[in-house]
Amino acid sequence: MIWNETMECMSREDMRKLQGIRLKRTVERVYHNCEPYRKRMQEKGVTPNDIQTIDDIAKLPFTSKSDLRDYYPFGLLSVPMSEIVRLQASSGTTGKPIVVGYTRNDLNIWGEVGARCFTSYGLGKNDVVQVSYGYGLFTGGLGAHAAVETIGGAVLPMSSGNTEKQIMLMHDFGSVGLACTPSYALYLADALLDSKIPREEFKLKIGAFGAEPWTEGMRKELQEKLGIKAYDLYGLTEIIGPGVGHECEYQDGTHLCEDHFYPEIVDPVTGEPLPPGATGELVFSTITKEGMPLLRFRTRDLTSLNYETCRCGRTSVRMSRILGRCDDMLIIRGVNVFPSQVESVICEIPQLEPHYLLIVDRINNLDSFEVQVEVKDAFFSDEMSKLMELKKYISHRLQSVLGISPDVKLVEPRSIERSQGKAKRVIDKRMLK
Ligand code: ADP
Ligand code: ZN
Q1: Local structure of residue 54 (DSSP, 8 states)
Q2: Residue range 235-247, pLDDT digits in tens
Q3: Distance 264 CA to ligand 2 centre (A)
Q4: Strands 128-131 and 154-157, bridge-based pairing
């Protein structure tokens, strides 16, 4: 099902025209109403008149996370406080929180894009959808909440935590959809097994998972463990929250709501725009937001874009899985390592649970790199020699994917701390020294 066929299936040519018109309007708004933007544009020698089509976007300066911190809390608002009806803040995975303000119309847009996501997953007005993203300053809970309300589903506002109750209500209320982080979904999957309630007594069919990077391997794991279809839900606080992008029934890339959020891919180091299909840093310009529009915001997320029409009929651009954030990239003995690469190896080995932790340290001026991973119950009691063999195999696979060989430590099932929100997969002790 498609929520807004006009926008989601518009011809590429019409979409670019619309994006141009909306960009121009946004640039005018921020130039006249937001001092920092006006100053930046003046420094670059650009005026709103220079922006006529979407191609002119490259003339505009970038905005970054540090700009949001510098103008903390309200310096980047483009409307008076009387127009703001909601404040949210980022969960602060990487530093001080970032505040965003929404007008009434911005909240409507958030509901609209969220509705596109949840409709494309196959959810509708007859469904109970359990929202187990955290509610509060973090946009996950309230964003998914608005999405479910907009499609007319029955929203079950659980927030995260209280896992036993999550399972009880999922069962008793017949939740069809579950919206949470993939790592919390994994936790709930184990809790569901522990509850000893037969799977057939649950109605759960669809997962709307996001807010953190996850791999195809993790998708497979979640689909099998929960007996559902698991879809990607992408978003970030600065741009609006969850709802910036979503997968469709083909699970072949994350469609972006590009009539509201215009995406570009740039070289993460030089900021130069990259050709279609190249992998680089994702940059968004909000082209309809009023409260706090952002122009050319550097997300630090690494991905690529595909402009081909999808089998679902949507023409909206699709982004490939987020490899990770530039900030998540570890440099170990000079080699670039993303936690998602480790995850993809772990998920392909049947003896392992998808729970892992990367521990990096510097000992005698040399980087040490340990990967802890849980072994499944059924294998943990295997003979020592078998476990040693398994360890060797994992090291070998990681070496070939990462180009560097970590110390693999097999740990007992359920010994790595579980996450109820965004998982913490890396301990970099070098940062503390
Ligand atoms: P914080 O930056 O404090 O974590 P947010 O909650 O706004 O705050 O997080 C947004 C970030 O979360 C994105 O920039 C991206 O790195 C990550 N993220 C969100 N959804 C996904 C997803 N579906 N896949 C991969 N990463 C995601
Ligand atoms: Zn599609």
Answers
A1: G
A2: 999 999 999 999 9
A3: 19
A4: parallel
pLDDT tens for 292-324 read: 999 999 999 999 999 999 999 999 999 999 998
pLDDT tens readout for residues 96-122? 789 999 999 999 999 999 999 999 999
Helix (H) or strand (E) holding 35: helix 35-44
Question: Tokens 């059924």 — which residue?
Answer: 378
- 73 preceded by cis ω (within 30°)? yes
Contacts of 278 (CB under 8 A, 6+ apart): 265, 304
Query: What pLDDT score was predicted for residue 335?
Result: 93
Q: Contacts from 163-167 at CB under 8 Å and sequence distance 24+? A: 163/187, 163/188, 163/191, 163/420, 164/191, 164/195, 166/130, 166/132, 166/191, 167/191, 167/192, 167/195, 167/197
Q: What is the pLDDT of residue 91?
A: 60
First and final C-alpha spacing in the chain: 53
Going along the chain from its start, the domains and CATH numbers come out as 1-327 (3.40.50.12780), 330-432 (3.30.300.30)
Q: Quick one: pLDDT band at residue 93, thresholds 50, 70, 90?
A: low
Q: Is 231 exposed, middle or buried (0-12, 13-18, 19+ CB in 10 A)?
A: buried
- Tell me how many degrees the CA angle 169-172-178 measures, rounded to the nearest 5: 50
What is the DSSP code (8-state) at residue 81? G
Instruction: Identify the residues whose C-beta falls under 6 Å from ligand 1.
Output: 90-94, 138, 210-213, 232-237, 299, 301, 322, 325
Q: How far apart are CA 210 and CA 232, in angstroms?
A: 6
Q: Taking the model in full, what pTM does it have?
A: 0.95
Give the rounded distance of the alpha carbon of 32 from its chain centre: 32
Distance (Å) from CA 258 to ligand 2 centroid: 14
Q: Is 258 helix (H, G, I), strand (E, B) or coil?
A: coil
Confidence category of residue 94, pLDDT binned at 50, 70, 90? low
Q: Is 92's pLDDT higher than 70? A: no
Q: Distance, CA 356 to ligand 2 centroid (Å)?
A: 31
